[in-house]
Amino acid sequence: MKRVFFLVIMVIFLVYIAPLGFQYYQKRGDGEEKIHTVQNVENILDSQASAGQNAEDTGEDAGSGAEAQEDAAMIAVSVHGTVKEMTLEEYTAGAVAAEMPASFPEAALQAQAAAARTFAVYKQSLGQDETHPDAAVCDDYTHCAAFVELDTQAESLWGKKAKEWTEKVQAAVKATEGEIVTYNGSPIAAVFHSAAAQQTESAVSVWGTDIPYLVAVDSAGDDACPEYDASKTFGAEEFRQIMLAEEPDINLTGLPKTWFTEIESSEAGGVTSCKIGGKSFKGTRVRELLGLNSTHFTIKTTDTSITFHTQGYGHGVGMSQYGAKCMAEQGSSYQEILQHYYTGTKVEKIGAK
Ligand SMILES: [Zn+2]
Predict the structure, then answer these.
(1) pTM for the full model?
(2) How far is the CA of 128 from the centre of ligand 1 (A)?
(3) How far is the CA of 276 from the centre of ligand 1 (A)?
């Protein structure tokens, strides 16, 4: 009798109670698994889409925590074509000094320090650069970022203010020591420019690559930049020669007012493309060919001339330096400035996970 009773209890347990526990266990397991899976996939997609990293790079990043941290502390910099090894912090100070007026408020200089350091770490993470295979970065601002050697060049850069400004720049670097801007745990392409035109440009508008943290955001204070408003006038014949040297097939006959058609703009107002003499040009190409301050331009013509009026200075993507200055003056911290201009990012110590 006892045995039968025990069997009944066992059957009840196996049929009703055990499955409940198993289901509960399965549910928990599923939930956790899902969270991990989604994060992992996003990480891979984002680092590929944003950083342009290939699978190999991503693998390397994931594999070496402490090692990467040690490597990141030193950097090879091509200075006037000579490769120099220095600490990442030394490089950062030289880049801040060259890229931003040292008279800017501290939080702006700190934001610039973190952005310059991040850009260098990002370039390192991409592996060998074709232009300077033995260095991670160079001192050409059109290619990487401007850089000066503070030990020897502070005097010529700042004159009597050399000591004061050197200390101010070094303090900004120290305050952000080892900190970089990350998106999903990877260093970002922390691009910056002098001044936007009240709104930054997205990477996709300017370079055709969609990068989640480089989207258009409001930017106040850009008009404090001395080059914010600028005009450049070309004689009709001069303009014709510049453009025909580039594209011999375009039709620049008749009056200048008929030469410009189909002007397309980004949401921030920059010219993404326009037709000149019947042929389509990217806004960035027009800026380059004509030496304009930005792609944020309007065109005015007379019968004998063409005037381009620009607003902003630089490509307009990422952090605006004059915008950073304005935010700092209004009390924002460097983290707030960086997270404003680089959407959805974090500021963290190198190697922190
Ligand atoms: Zn370079």
Answers:
(1) 0.78
(2) 11
(3) 32
Do 188 and 298 lie in one domain? The reply is no
What distance in Å separates the CA atoms of residue 110 and residue 176, rounded to the nearest whole number?
Answer: 6
**Whether residue 185 sits in one domain with residue 91:** yes
**Containing structural domain, residue 269:** 229-311
Shortest CA distance to 101 belongs to which of 287, 279, 251, 321? 321
Residue 131 lies in a domain: yes
Residues 298 and 183 grouped into a single domain: no
Ligand 1 centroid vs 138 CA: distance in angstroms? 4
* Ramachandran bin of 254, using left for φ above 0, alpha for ψ from -120 to 50, beta for the remaining angles: left
Nearest by Cα to 92 from 107, 80, 109: 109
pLDDT, one tens digit per residue, over 250-275 is 999 999 999 999 999 999 999 999 99
Using one digit for the tens of pLDDT, what is the confidence trace for 60-96? 333 344 444 454 489 999 999 999 999 999 999 999 9
Strand bridging mode 137-138 / 74-79? parallel
Give the distance (Å) from ligand 1 centre to CA of residue 278. 35
Please list, residue by residue across 122-133, b when 16 or more beta carbons sit within 10 angstroms of its beta carbon and e when fewer do. bbbbeeebeebe
Using the mean position of ligand 1's atoms as its centre, give its distance from the Cα of residue 129 in Å.
8
179-183 and 346-349 as β-strands: parallel, antiparallel, unpaired?
antiparallel
- Which residues is 230 bridged to in the sheet? 310
